[in-house]
Specification:
- The protein is elongated, with a radius of gyration of 20 Å.
- It is mainly alpha-helical and about 220 residues long.
């Protein structure tokens, strides 16, 4: 997602708010006021507040489509909220509000949001979550929501999320198994730009014996 200037333009807000009489002004104000409010909550990591906010505005629409739930998710994506949540959960693994927000984001964000790429290395949230060893339950939700497109998606080095999972010594067998369940043997045999499969990396990094045996059995 790329966030357009229109979302934060004072002139566009003033124009929209002054067209169509009092009823239009009220609706437009309600729509445009959500953006600064959301940004503050993201900056302050108010997980419960963000989740409630999304549920309240999930059906918000405008005539031109610029300030509806799609616009809200452009802000969420441009601020890297999903990655922030995964990073937070790496340290605070039992934060139920953060976990609940992840589920809400996946439910309301749609496939484009789930497939969004982050950082210079162009990784999706599953790439990053696997490498950071985010809670298994959260990663399983990501896999279920993103399906084959997500598990076969490659970063700038040609690695899929299974490669990234196998670069973590504490890689979850449950997560590795779920990726393989969705992607089959093909996802295990993918070589990155360095001609390495997930098995190569698992052995090199020293992943658990269970993970290594799983990769061998399937591959």
């Amino acid at each position: 997602f790329s966030m357009g200037n229109r979302l934060f333009s004072n002139s566009s807000i003033e124009t929209d708010c002054n067209v169509g009489g009092n009823e239009a002004t009220s609706t437009s104000n309600d729509v445009h006021d959500v953006y600064p409010q959301l940004k503050v909550m993201i900056d302050n990591e108010e997980w419960g507040g963000i989740s409630q906010f999304l549920h309240e505005h999930q059906h918000t629409t405008t005539n031109d489509g610029a300030a509806d739930i799609r616009g809200i998710f452009k802000i969420i994506a441009s601020n890297g909220l999903l990655v922030t949540l995964l990073t937070h959960l790496k340290k605070q693994r039992d934060d139920e509000e953060a976990k609940s927000l992840v589920v809400t984001l996946l439910k309301l964000g749609g496939k484009d949001f789930i497939m969004e790429k982050y950082r210079v290395i162009r990784e999706n949230a599953l790439h990053l979550g696997c490498y950071m060893n985010a809670p298994s339950g959260v990663l399983l939700k990501l896999i279920e929501a993103g399906g084959r497109d997500l598990v076969f998606d490659k970063n700038s080095s040609g690695s899929n999320p299974l490669h990234r999972a196998c670069m973590n010594k504490r890689a979850s067998l449950e997560v590795v198994s779920k990726i393989i369940e969705v992607g089959g043997r093909d996802v295990v045999l993918v070589q990155n730009d360095a001609k390495m499969t997930p098995l190569h990396l698992a052995i090199l990094i020293g992943a658990s014996t269970d993970v290594i045996l799983k990769l061998i059995k399937v591959g």
